[in-house]
């Protein structure tokens, strides 16, 4: 039973990694940019949620408001920062997102009285436990798992059934061909950034009741890279599966292995994955002919 | 503007293109040698840090700027060098020997990390090195019998041929020697066939391979050399700062190192040193500027990160060639004065290039 409990906690944590990784994958597929500031977007989202709650909105309303606000932030970032530099080497754009991470992190720290503190996000379900046949599960974990499932279904429906989703898929597979088909690729790239920021915000709001809201919570984004790699960097379901794998491995190694292994386990997994199967579990195998 | 008419094949690969360059680099070296007599002690300490980071920047430039393989774990190589040096130094090994071991060990570790690099490219490699950086950071803080754990480890001054280099000036000269030697070494490597193979790999792996360049061999060579140089930088850093702890070699530090070479200007040796000057000089500038800022901003902890991030974003967006590119433009403007045109350095191709299938 204890094992099951650990696994559930690991799955919940892994869902958060998976949601952040989902943001990476969305942006990578659309603009071929690896967004190293994805964790910082999550942090900003959590702070937005905290801010809206401080204004007096109830939790759910604050959640919706911060997701909407962060989607706008994502749109704006793509328009202001990313679009002008597309076409430069991928490395430069990666550095740009590093810079974005720096600015977001230090910008939040510079808010007097807010940025340097840790805050608690008072979710209504916080502290509740569910009992199912001798297994005690924290409500926070169950909400994370449930919300991830709902969000994934929504995204799947977006990509499967709506024109925008299909157009996004088309432009991520072959941008030039999508241009020729009359798909407004640049506008879609903006939307993808908005979507990624919104997903990151959901991750932040889900994580906040467990870890508190603080300026450095974005560093968890660095653990989402292993998730994205394990799942395959260009696969949306892979991101979630990879996140869950990383979360469970982390939880199990934290319990069974000596102290210290918990923090490196995700990175050991990703190194093994890169050596054995660099494309990840669900990665597409693509080859370029000269 | 000076035109160099080449009359001999050797001129193509000469270190200095004409006498003027030889004069200015000589003058720079003379100024650096004479600096301890003129510059106050604090300035010498800062210069020493610039030299140490210069070595690391040259190392990272060799890997990222010239071979096109980028590493988000270079501080870990510095850490390996620093801890090896500290450990062997405390056991009483002579300095040249322990330094050689530090370089050798970090080079060997670099080779091991380079192995997955043979299979993966681009950002996958970045994440592999990032993972490696995290693992080393954890090992440094857990392996207490060797590293002293998170409590840190103190490092004594090095002694060379019976002298203890405990004065700032003496250590400065040691660093100057190491920096000049490693820079010249890397420059010579780059104009030899090995260096040209590196650049070919950076520009197109497929073309390089079809020209008969063994990708695996040259990539791992580049990784190993770069790691060894970073280890040298780390060892000198350990002696300079005299106290090392794992958080000095963390992944955040690695990102700072990348920031240094990108702001300096990827793909140029000048850029490596511009970047090192930026990394060391910026905190000084900020602390000077703080006196003129309003109270609320002065007290904020995130100011330095904000400035770094903003400068990085500004450089990527406005001047992708970094500080070296800016310097090139200023120099060309001065040389061509009435004839300079704004678009002279504009990139010819600016369409969206796909790197996914590279």
From TrEMBL, chain A:
One of the record's GO molecular function terms: transmembrane transporter activity
Listed transmembrane segments: 6-28, 40-73, 85-104, 135-159, 191-213, 225-252
GO biological process: amino acid transport
InterPro entries attached to this UniProt entry: ABC_transp_permease, BCAA_transport_permease
Record's signal peptide: none
GO cellular component: plasma membrane
Keywords, comma-separated and alphabetical: Amino-acid transport, Cell membrane, Membrane, Transmembrane, Transmembrane helix, Transport
Membrane topology: Multi-pass membrane protein
Keyword Transport: yes
Compartments it resides in: Cell membrane
CDD domains given in the database record: TM_PBP1_LivH_like
Family recorded in the similarity comment: Belongs to the binding-protein-dependent transport system permease family. LivHM subfamily.
Protein name, as recorded: Branched-chain amino acid ABC transporter permease
Species the sequence originates in: Caenimonas aquaedulcis
From TrEMBL, chain B:
Segments traversing the membrane: 21-38, 44-63, 95-115, 170-190, 220-238, 258-280, 300-318
An MF annotation (GO) of this entry: branched-chain amino acid transmembrane transporter activity
InterPro entries assigned: ABC_transp_permease, LivM-like
Protein name as annotated: Branched-chain amino acid ABC transporter permease
Keywords (A to Z) from UniProt: Cell membrane, Membrane, Transmembrane, Transmembrane helix
Superkingdom classification of source: Bacteria
Keyword flag Cell membrane: yes
GO cellular component terms, A-Z: plasma membrane
Annotated membrane topology: Multi-pass membrane protein
Organism this protein belongs to: Caenimonas aquaedulcis
């Amino acid at each position: 039973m204890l094992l099951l409990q650990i696994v559930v906690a690991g799955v919940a944590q892994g869902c958060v990694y998976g949601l952040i990784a989902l943001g990476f994958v969305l942006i990578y597929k659309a603009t071929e940019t690896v967004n190293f500031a994805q964790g910082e977007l999550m942090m900003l989202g959590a702070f937005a949620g905290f801010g809206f709650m401080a204004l007096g909105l109830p939790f759910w309303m604050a959640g919706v408001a911060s997701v909407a606000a962060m989607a706008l932030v994502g749109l704006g970032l793509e328009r202001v920062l990313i679009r002008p530099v597309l076409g430069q080497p991928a490395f430069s754009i990666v550095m740009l997102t590093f810079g974005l991470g720096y600015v977001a992190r230090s910008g939040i720290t510079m808010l007097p009285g807010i940025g340097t503190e840790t805050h608690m996000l008072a979710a209504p379900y916080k502290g509740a436990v569910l009992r199912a046949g001798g297994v005690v599960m924290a409500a926070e974990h169950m909400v994370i798992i449930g919300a991830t499932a709902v969000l994934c279904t929504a995204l799947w429906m977006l990509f499967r059934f709506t024109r925008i989703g299909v157009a996004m898929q088309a432009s991520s597979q072959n941008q030039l061909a999508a241009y020729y088909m009359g798909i407004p690729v640049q506008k879609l790239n903006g939307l993808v950034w908005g979507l990624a920021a919104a997903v990151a915000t959901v991750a932040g709001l889900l994580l906040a009741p467990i870890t508190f809201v603080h300026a450095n919570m974005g560093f968890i984004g660095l653990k989402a890279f292993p998730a994205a790699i394990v799942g395959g960097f260009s696969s949306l379901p892979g991101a979630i599966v990879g996140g869950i794998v990383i979360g469970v491995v982390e939880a199990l190694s934290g319990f069974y292995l000596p102290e210290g292994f918990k923090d490196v386990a995700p990175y050991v997994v990703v190194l093994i994955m890169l050596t054995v199967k660099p494309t990840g579990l669900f990665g597409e195998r693509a080859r370029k002919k000269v | 503007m000076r035109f160099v008419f080449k009359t001999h094949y050797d001129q193509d690969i000469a270190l200095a293109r004409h006498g003027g360059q030889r004069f200015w680099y000589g003058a720079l070296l003379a100024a650096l040698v004479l600096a301890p007599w003129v510059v106050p002690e604090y300035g010498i300490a800062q210069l020493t840090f610039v030299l140490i980071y210069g070595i690391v920047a040259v190392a990272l430039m060799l890997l990222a700027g010239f071979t096109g393989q980028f590493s988000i774990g270079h501080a870990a190589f510095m850490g390996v060098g620093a801890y090896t040096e500290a450990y062997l130094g405390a056991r009483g090994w002579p300095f040249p020997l322990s330094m050689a071991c530090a370089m050798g060990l970090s080079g060997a570790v670099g080779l091991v990390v380079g192995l997955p690099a043979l299979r993966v490219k681009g950002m996958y490699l970045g994440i592999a090195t990032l993972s490696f950086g995290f693992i080393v950071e954890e090992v440094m803080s857990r392996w207490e019998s060797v590293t002293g754990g998170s409590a840190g480890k103190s490092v004594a001054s090095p002694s060379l041929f019976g002298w203890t280099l405990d004065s700032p000036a003496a250590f400065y000269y040691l660093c100057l020697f190491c920096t000049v030697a490693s820079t010249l070494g890397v420059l010579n490597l780059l104009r030899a066939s090995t260096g040209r193979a590196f650049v070919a790999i950076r520009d197109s792996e497929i073309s390089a391979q079809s020209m008969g360049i063994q990708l695996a061999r040259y990539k791992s060579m580049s990784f190993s050399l770069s790691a060894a140089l970073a280890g040298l930088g780390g060892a000198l850093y350990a002696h300079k700062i005299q106290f090392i702890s794992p958080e000095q070699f963390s992944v955040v530090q690695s990102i700072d190192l990348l920031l240094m070479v990108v702001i300096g200007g990827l793909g140029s040796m000048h850029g490596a040193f511009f970047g090192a000057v930026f990394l060391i000089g910026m905190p000084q500038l900020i602390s000077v500027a703080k006196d003129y800022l309003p109270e609320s901003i002065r007290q904020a902890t995130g100011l330095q990160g904000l400035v770094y991030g903003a400068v990085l974003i500004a450089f990527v967006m406005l001047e992708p060639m970094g500080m070296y590119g800016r310097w090139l433009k200023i120099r060309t403007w001065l040389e061509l004065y009435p004839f300079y045109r704004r678009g002279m350095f504009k990139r010819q191709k600016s369409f969206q290039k796909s790197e996914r299938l590279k």
